[in-house]
Design goal:
The chain is an alpha+beta fold. It has five domains: 87 residues; 103 residues, no CATH class; 138 residues, no CATH class; 62 residues, no CATH class; 112 residues, no CATH class. It is built from 26 helices and twelve strands. A hairpin with a 2-residue loop joins β5 and β6. The radius of gyration is 27 Å and the shape is globular. The chain starts with a helix and ends with a helix. The model has no long low-confidence stretch (mean pLDDT 94).
């Protein structure tokens, strides 16, 4: 019988080979692996990752079924190593975290903790070991524990846990704390700020939960089996993807949307990740697109009360044969979108470029984008993993270009070296230079270079400098003055300004007023251009930000003004 090392080596080699020999050999390897004990964490991790890949990219129905069955019972292998006294800390790093039978420990945000404790109350608790933030406790706990200040404000060596046990009794500490926060007369954002300031670590015991990374997949209606080579990056044309017929989009029901948002919460939490749009996704806005080859992409927006002040936001997740394999975000303004795309480590050998092209195609279809850009972090700025993988060339070979002329010249020199010197690899120091700025892909009809040096941060700096210069640094004063400015600019329009006095519309009006007040000639615009701003503001606070973007794209004068503010 071959050793486990031999079995794993062959399984890893054949998992991405989809010839007839591998299609018959992989099931045999899985049958042998099932009977072979694992005695070290390195082999355990290798087996786990190979099984997950095969569950997402199966050769045959037997591979699909056996990989799923082995994952369903994988917790027994973890428990066996624990019983043998094997050190399981190699299972903790975020690259491999979330395996059945392990635990997640992290200082999660209030929104995530609140969701986690409600969904898995028997599996979550506060980790008090090593928690010594006495100043933070002294600032917050007196809200919940009567007369605590008599002790905490003046005494040394306060018995914090004794106070907690007196107030919470036999209740779970985490559940007790969250109920106290729920009852505070504060907005959700303020509660989050107060809780996050405590920096409390929460332990999530995964056991054999479906939420573990090991078992966190769904059974698809139809399984796509791979009978030929995977689609490689060299086979991908973004131009062809954008020219393809529109995808069929399905708006999910609230219940189905909640299932997807719960799934992305689980997917991110077990990987020690939080993304603004995955944490705060709105289940009422979830859109599904089946793009083929067993791939489903889900996208959603933010609830009106948690939106960004200026840009529109989409977040999303991809399932491959029911397995979550990546997440995506798109932050957009007018026809431009910054896209972040992260394929989980396990699946980076699996058609990432093709799936990326389909995600851009879907975002383009939903929001009418003509220009896509990639964050510098994605290509290596303060990201050594991206440098090591040569991420810059992944995007460059898909057609992205640098925004800075000097980086375009450097790219051309590197491409010449690659073409004339087989085996040449761009040095890490050069890749770091190339990651100094966004890179861009423009579709036909885009204004080439329009967004190359734009940044909403520049607009934010201008607003704050005006606040310091004209309002003595008072945020309340500049907000009030900006609202007054915008109200005056909208006079004469057939608009009931009282409709912007409450809720999400009020928030949208106040925040966009700060930006519009930076446009000095706005009061002199034509009535048509000024009055169109009211519809834009109203759309910003409506259920779906897609209409907000479409209205922006139809307002040429506002686009010109915003581009000037964010470029100069």
């Amino acid at each position: 019988m071959p050793s486990l090392e031999q079995l794993l080596a062959e399984l890893e080699q054949r998992k991405t080979r989809f010839d007839s020999e591998s299609a018959s050999r992989v099931p045999e390897l899985l049958r042998r692996v099932e009977k072979t004990p694992v005695r070290d964490t390195s082999s355990l991790i290798r087996l786990h990752e190979a099984l997950l890949f095969l569950r997402a990219f199966p050769h045959t129905a037997e591979v699909f079924r056996r990989a799923g069955s082995l994952l369903d019972h994988f917790v027994a292998r973890v428990d066996k190593l624990r019983a043998l006294g094997v050190d399981l800390t190699p299972l903790d790093p975020l690259e491999v975290s979330g395996i059945s039978g392990t635990t997640i420990e992290d200082a999660l945000s209030y929104d995530v903790v609140h969701w986690l404790a409600a969904r898995f109350p028997e599996h979550t608790q506060i980790v008090w070991d090593g928690y010594e933030e006495e100043r933070l406790m002294a600032n917050t706990w007196p809200r919940f524990l009567p007369l605590l200040e008599e002790d905490s404000a003046v005494e040394a060596n306060v018995p914090w846990h004794e106070w907690l046990r007196a107030g919470a009794g036999s209740r779970n500490d985490l559940a007790w704390f969250l109920r106290r926060f729920d009852r505070l007369s504060l907005s959700p954002r303020e509660k989050s700020e107060l809780y996050d300031g405590l920096q409390m670590v929460v332990r999530w015991t995964l056991s054999n939960l479906k939420a573990s990374r090991t078992r966190n997949w769904r059974t698809p209606r139809h399984v796509f089996y791979h009978h030929g080579p995977l689609i490689q990056r060299r086979d991908i044309s973004l131009a062809d993807a954008f020219a393809a017929p529109p995808l069929k989009l399905q708006k999910l029901s609230l219940r189905a949307g909640e299932d997807i948002i719960n799934l992305i919460h689980e997917v991110m939490a077990v990987r020690y990740r939080e993304l603004y749009g995955t944490t705060l996704g709105d289940p009422r806005q979830v859109i599904k697109a089946d793009v083929g080859r067993g791939v489903e992409i889900f996208l959603w927006g933010l609830p009106p009360e948690r939106r960004l002040p200026l840009r529109a936001y989409l977040a999303g997740m991809t399932l491959k044969n029911g397995v979550p394999i990546n997440y995506v975000e798109a932050i957009s303004l007018f026809e431009w979108s910054e896209v972040g795309f992260n394929t989980f480590y396990t699946f980076r050998d699996g058609e990432s470029a093709w799936i990326y092209a389909q995600a851009l195609r879907l975002i383009r279809q939903m929001h009418g984008m003509l220009c896509f850009s990639v964050y510098p972090y994605q290509i290596g700025q303060n990201n050594e993993e991206a440098i090591e993988s040569g991420a810059y060339w992944f995007y460059r070979k898909l057609g992205f270009r640098p925004g800075k002329p000097e980086l375009a010249r450097l790219t051309a020199r590197e491409e010449q070296k690659i073409a004339t010197h087989p085996g040449y690899r761009t040095p890490a120091r050069t890749l770091r230079r190339l990651a100094d700025q966004h890179i861009f892909y423009e579709l036909p009809g885009a204004e080439c270079g329009a967004w190359d040096t734009f940044s909403t941060r520049k607009i934010g700096f201008k607003i704050n400098r005006r606040m310091a210069r004209e309002y003595d640094g008072d945020a309340g004063a500049i907000r009030s003055a900006s609202v007054t400015f915008l109200r005056k600019a909208l006079r004469g329009c057939d608009v009931d300004l009282d409709t912007f006095s409450t809720g999400a519309s009020r928030k949208a009006f106040q925040e966009l007023a700060l930006v519009f007040a930076e446009i000095p000639d706005l009061p002199g615009w034509s009535a048509k251009d000024r009055c169109a701003l009211a519809a834009i503001i109203r759309a910003k606070g409506a259920r779906d930000e897609g209409r907000y973007l479409r209205l922006l794209q139809n307002h040429a004068r506002l686009r010109s003004a915003i581009l000037t503010l964010g470029t100069a």
